[in-house]
Amino acid sequence: MSGSAVEKTESQETAVLALHKKFLGGEQAKAPLRSINEAGIKRFELLKFPHKKHEMYTFVNTHELAGTSFELAGEGPVDTAWVQSRIYPACKHSVAVFVNGAFQANLSDLSGLGDSFKIQCLSDAVVDDEIKQTLIDSLEEENDVFAALNSAFMHHGVLIDIPAKATFDVPVQLLYVSTGTSSGAVVSHPRLVVRLGEMAELKVLPVYAGTRGNYCVNAVNDFIIKDGAGVTCTQVQKDDAESWHVSKTRVQVHRDGRLFARNASSGNRLTRHHYEIHLKEEGAELLLSGATVLVHQEQVHNFIRIHHEAPHCTSEQLFKNVINDKGRSSVDGTVIVNKGAQLTNSNQLINNLMLSDEAHSDNKPNLMIFADDVKCTHGTTVGQIDEDQLFYLKTRGLSEALAKSLLTTSFVNSLIQTIPFPDVVADLNEILLKKLEAKHA
Amino acid sequence: MSLLEIKDLHAGFEGTEIVKGVSLTINAGEVHAIMGPNGSGKSTLSKVLAGHPSYVVSKGSITYNGQDLLEMDAEERALAGVFLGFQYPVEIPGVNNAEFLRMAYNAKLVKQGQDEVDPLDFDEILDEKMKMVGMDKKYKDRFLNEGFSGGEKKKNEILQMAVLDPKLTILDETDSGLDIDALKVVAQGVNKLTNENNALIMITHYQRLLNYIEPQFVHVFSGGKIVKSGGKELAHELEAQGYDWVTAPAK
Ligand SMILES: Nc1ncnc2c1ncn2[C@@H]1O[C@H](COP(=O)(O)OP(=O)(O)O)[C@@H](O)[C@H]1O
Ligand SMILES: [Mg+2]
Predict the structure, then answer these.
(1) Do residues A94 and A209 lie in contact, with contact meaning Cβ atoms separated by under 8 Å?
(2) How close is the Cα of B202 to the center of ligand 2, in Å?
(3) CATH number at residue B31
(4) Ligand 1 center to residue B10 CA distance, Å?
(5) Domain count, chain B
(6) What is the model's pLDDT at position A3?
């Protein structure tokens, strides 16, 4: 039994190696990135696909994903009207469109951002020592096999480079379009590096969507946030239901830097977000929130490691998951407070609303504290609809269905309403809250 | 035909009987007061009438408007005109108060085969009702009961009564939490809403409310039962002498 399971994994890994060989010999690979591609596949060979008891994948079954044989996705074609309908009105002149990870100048419009917004291919940007080092570090320390694969297949990533003190009035939408196929499954490896100079500020809205199913998007996003700089990143995962979404977000926040990261996921066959955040210098601040509404067999998982490496840093986390049918969600989050990171302030709260007996939720908030003067809390709730609230609404003549949809909507709405972009709030009303209506009406 | 007829009602939680044989008949146009010590089962009776699913009725019957009330669930009872003003209204964060009130109002209209009202039209209706119960307009855009003071929660209950215009209203300790000025305004509002076609049951621990809303019938409730019934003079006797003289023989 176990013998055949091992063989199976080995054949999956062999298939990836063969795909990689084809990639390096093909037209997509870029010479300046070759050493990183090669280091990436070495890292993959070392890490291998996760087995059941892998500590990073305790709650996530990647068996089906690893067992699917993928071809590398090409660059399209894609219907222009389809793309345009997914651009937020406020981002008409501040949108970068990517198709299967490749930047599309003809579909993008960055005219509203001015000269201080710089975007370039990573294959050109690697001449910059700091960028090159970030890419190399990401491999040497990488423990997540999917992130290693992203480096192995990286060819069309971009760098967004914001000079010191630059600020922008409008948010930048990063629209990642995946084009699935009706035949074999395809995979793309979008890669983004965002660097903010001192005191610069940027609002980004990465949005992941697919024209049809049968694809995997395996994204890695690196943020380097220099002294006093601030990033607001609101990520929307609205992929096709028949897809897989794996993302890793690696962040370094320097002195008094800020990252406000929000994440709303509609789920699919498997979505897994991995956050690795380093609050490196005094005064660094993090806000991380996640909202999901899952129906059918949709899954969304969050794996979070936050490193408090200096005194006076703050991290606030809030997750709200609504899970119906056979949906699955997990939040596996650890806050590590290093020795010397005194006066750390860290809170993590995970709230789950379970709407069916078969809904599943795993939660593992964790604190590892090596400093003695800190304020850290964490908490988890897993609950059903409150019977007294439901009764109250029904005594006013609301039907059970309407009352339930009101209560479930309000649960996640209290988080969605804090998102400071009306276009995103409207989008989430469509993709998350509509699921609750449809379910109960 | 009586509006409400409760016959030998026994109810409580699984394994614990709290209401122990209540019989009570109420006709349209009547105002009844149920008075009794804390813990005697008054709120339990009110929630059984409103259809809370946690309570088990082990014996007896409730007929409302000729229908078997126990066969109806909470929503059907509400749509048939039964209204409970809760002793402890729940807070529902994330649900807008005015939107909730409009949904409740529209649910009733739809039940009556009428068209729903849109938010603008409802706003006018709501303003008038809020004035009637002395409630500040700022409570329209708050989340339902969240962070309301005890008194504002009670006013919000009466506001819902005014919006829904029920046939049978049960007010459970609506007076507690209200100061005397607010109590007068709320009582005036309730008086405007009562007429010969509907009925009111006021549950209270104190006699104070009865100075402003006059009942024709007063029932003393103790140990899960009505132990004495009379006219409004019974309330004055209770106020003067406490509950012991009526409840002691029942124990
Ligand atoms: N969940 C419960 N399970 C069992 N007994 C309860 C529960 N809630 C209330 N009770 C009991 O029911 C009795 C009646 O309570 P209640 O109806 O609230 O009385 P009243 O409104 O007259 O003060 C009390 O003894 C109370 O302790
Ligand atoms: Mg009570």
Answers:
(1) no
(2) 11
(3) 3.40.50.300
(4) 14
(5) 1
(6) 45
CB-CB neighbors (< 8 A) of B53 in chain A? 387, 391
Do the strands B67-68 and B56-64 form a parallel or antiparallel pair, or are they unpaired? antiparallel
Which residues make Cβ contacts (< 8 Å) with residue B88, sequence separation at least 6?
none
Closest CA to A313 of A339, A342, A288: A342
Paired tokens of B242 = 């406490």
Instruction: Supply the pTM of this predicted model.
Output: 0.84
- Of the candidates A394, A407, A410, the beta carbon closest to that of B75 is on A394
Q: What residues in B contact A398, CB-CB < 8 Å?
A: 75, 103-104, 107
Taking the centre of ligand 1 as the mean of its atom positions, its distance from the CA of residue B246, in whole angstroms, is 21
Distance CA A157, CA A98 (A): 10
Containing domain of residue B23, as a range?
4-250
Yes or no, beta carbons of A386 and B104 under 8 Å apart: no
Task: Give me the residues paired with residue A354 across strands.
Answer: A323
CA distance A320 to chain B (A): 13
User: Strands A345-354 and B31-35, how do they pair?
Assistant: unpaired
Provide the β-strand partners of residue A303.
Answer: A274, A332
Taking 3-state DSSP, the helix, strand and coil percentages for chain B, each rounded to the nearest 5, stand at: 40, 30, 30
Selected residue of B13, B84, B99, B103 to mutate for chain A interface (largest A Cβ count, 10 A):
B103
Give A48's pLDDT tier (boundaries 50, 70, 90): very high
Q: Whose CA is nearest to atom 27 of ligand 1?
A: B39
The shortest CB-CB distance from A389 to any of B92, B104, B111 is to B92
Query: What residues have CB less than 8 Å from A246, skipping those under 6 apart?
Result: A65, A146, A216, A217, A218, A219, A270, A271, A272, A274
For residue B69, how many C-alpha atoms fall within 13 Å in the half-sphere facing its CB?
Answer: 29
Using DSSP, state whether B167 is helix, strand or coil. Answer: coil
Q: Distance between CA atoms of A186 and B66, rounded to whole angstroms? A: 66
In ligand 1, the atom with minimum distance to the C-alpha of B172 is 21
Ranges of each domain in chain A: 3-281, 388-441
- What pLDDT, in 10s, does the model give residues A391-440? 999 999 999 999 999 999 999 988 998 899 999 999 999 999 989 885 44
Beta bridge partners of residue B188, listed in sequence order: none
pLDDT digits (tens, 9 = 90+) for A269-282: 999 999 999 999 99
Identify the H or E element spanning A10.
helix A2-25
